[in-house]
């Protein structure tokens, strides 16, 4: 079964590009959310993985959304952001961050890593361009 991936991004062109890349890599993108409300509504579709930006249409709410997705709903969360410093040392429950712009190969490696982590494979190495949180 293909992992269900949600994208939390408010910039339309970036969101559509991520959605297309995710699909082209063989994953099922269940949708794009651009703020807290739409992200939490999308949880009903049971995502396995979320790619979350920091600054969204309702402000710098990405870390709050990421923490909720991870801690309340068990979603594997990685931030994809041009502002990784806003995440400090990390967000509890989330796995890490990748800086924008993200190359296709990097996104492919990040998604592979997240799928393996979702499948409880502890032997998988994180991608070199992904900053892991403690």
Verbal overview:
With 134 residues, the protein is α/β, with parallel strands linked by helices. It has a single domain, classed as Rossmann fold. The protein is built from four helices and six strands. Strands 2-1-3-4-5-6 form a six-stranded mixed beta sheet, sandwiched between helices. The protein is globular, with a radius of gyration of 13 Å. The relative contact order is 0.16.
Name the CATH superfamily classification. Answer: Response regulator
Text of the CATH class: Alpha Beta
Helix content: 25-40%
Task: Fill in the CATH topology.
Answer: Rossmann fold
Task: Tell me the domain tally.
Answer: 1
Give a short account of the largest sheet: 6 strands, mixed
**What is the percentage of strand-forming residues?**
15-25%
Mean pLDDT comes to: 94
Cα distance spanning the termini: 29 Å
Number of helices: 4
The run of helices and strands is: EHEHEHEEHE
Taken from the alpha-carbon principal axes, the silhouette is globular
Q: Give the uncertain stretches in residue-range form.
A: none
Task: Please tally the β strands and state the result.
Answer: 6
| Structural class estimated from helices and strands | alpha/beta
- So, CATH architecture? 3-Layer(aba) Sandwich
Q: Cα-atom Rg, whole angstroms?
A: 13 Å
User: How are strands sequenced across the largest beta sheet?
Assistant: 2-1-3-4-5-6
């Amino acid at each position: 079964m293909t992992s269900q991936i949600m994208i939390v991004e408010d910039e339309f062109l970036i969101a559509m590009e991520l959605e297309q890349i995710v699909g082209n890599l063989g994953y099922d993108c269940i949708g794009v959310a651009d703020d807290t409300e739409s992200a939490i509504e999308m949880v009903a579709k049971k995502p396995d993985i979320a790619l979350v930006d920091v600054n969204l249409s309702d402000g710098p709410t990405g870390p709050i959304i990421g923490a909720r997705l991870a801690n309340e709903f068990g979603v594997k969360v990685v931030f994809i952001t041009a502002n990784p410093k806003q995440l400090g040392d990390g967000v509890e429950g989330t796995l890490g961050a990748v800086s924008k712009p993200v190359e296709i190969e990097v996104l492919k490696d990040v998604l592979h890593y997240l799928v393996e982590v979702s499948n409880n494979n502890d032997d998988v190495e994180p991608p070199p361009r992904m900053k892991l949180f403690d």
